[in-house]
Amino acid sequence: MLKYRIADISEAANGIWIFAMEPLGGKLVHRPGQFAMMHLLDEKGESLDKRPYSIASAPDSPQLEFCIKMVGGRFTSGLALLKKGAVVGIEGPMGVIPHEGGKWAFVCGGTGIAPVMSLVRDIAQKNRKGSFLVFYSARDRKSLLYHDELLRLAKRNPCLRVVFTLTREEPAGWAGRCGRIGDALLHEFVAAPEDYDWFICGPMAMATALRECVIGLGADQKRVYLEGWG
Ligand SMILES: Cc1cc2nc3c(=O)[nH]c(=O)nc-3n(C[C@H](O)[C@H](O)[C@H](O)COP(=O)(O)OP(=O)(O)OC[C@H]3O[C@@H](n4cnc5c(N)ncnc54)[C@H](O)[C@@H]3O)c2cc1C
Fold first, then answer.
1. How many Cα neighbours within 13 Å face the side chain of 215?
2. Measured from the CB, is residue 205 less than 6 Å from ligand 1?
3. Amino acid 186: pLDDT
4. Tell me, what's the pLDDT at 97?
């Protein structure tokens, strides 16, 4: 288990906190889209409890970034007590998302944007060529994490396109979509779903429903990767 110090904590949206962590010694080597086991530690540095969290930062980043919904559960209640400077344990990396293909559709909701940020930041940093589509839904505008950064990345990289959709709000002047991600929206942007690899991430109920939806649209089920929680 590696030790990381919390370098920064910010509340990005209602109840969703972004943690930036710097390594104390060894740095976790990971691939984009992977997750790590985070440990709360006692005063001797022994693990008290652990949970998996997707890594939102790109592999080249000097810090690890996590985007965590504070649900008041066993782990998040303990995490909420930690201040900047506190040390946590990081174990991993875990999970594999083969992302070398040239056509990817990332479909995510809520904190499901975390692994997608790692993938998209990596694609942008490496200036990868292909077709990369991000479909990202949140309940309202203030719950959309990384909105400005995603727009910036898409502006710089013509291979990357981001479609935001809000499920419970239609703010004045909103340039994105409204409503849940479903057949019509996906079909509008992905003419040939079978040509794409799909990564779906978010609340489990949403992720499993979307998996069925993209397979129904013609995606190859061997190329549909799913990660869900909550
Ligand atoms: C591979 C993987 C990656 C994950 N990555 C992330 C991530 O990037 N960000 C993140 O926030 N979580 C992520 N999770 C979920 C995380 O591991 C914990 O399950 C979550 O933080 C809740 O832990 P807890 O002990 O505080 O809550 P628990 O004590 O386990 O649950 C307390 C209550 O909260 C509810 N609950 C649990 N999770 C959620 C949720 N997300 N939304 C609403 N209610 C919930 C439970 O149903 C329960 O009623 C990931 C899980 C997996 C398996």
1. 13
2. no
3. 95
4. 78
Beta-bridge partners for 66: 19
Query: Is the CB of 65 inside a 6 Å radius of any atom of ligand 1?
Result: no
Structural domain boundaries, residue 86: 2-94
Torsions phi, psi for 166 (to 5 deg):
-105, 130
Residue 141 is given by DSSP the state G
Q: How many CA atoms lie within 13 A of 33 on its CB side?
A: 21
Structural domain ending residue among the three candidates 75, 94, 113: 94
Q: Are strands 87-94 and 2-13 parallel, antiparallel or unpaired?
A: antiparallel
Residues whose CB falls within 8 Å of the CB of residue 14, separated by 6 or more in sequence, listed in order: 142, 143
Q: Report how many domains make up the chain.
A: 2
pTM of the model: 0.94
For the chain, list residues with pLDDT below 50: none
Decide whether any atom of ligand 1 lies within 6 Å of the 51 Cβ: yes
Opening angle at CA 172, ends 168 and 173, nearest 5 = 115
Please tell me the number of Cα atoms within 13 Å of 10 on its side-chain side: 7
At 107 the pLDDT is: 97
User: Alpha-carbon distance 85 to 141, whole Å?
Assistant: 31
Q: Which residue has the tokens 């589509």?
A: 133
Distance CA 40, CA 45 (A): 9
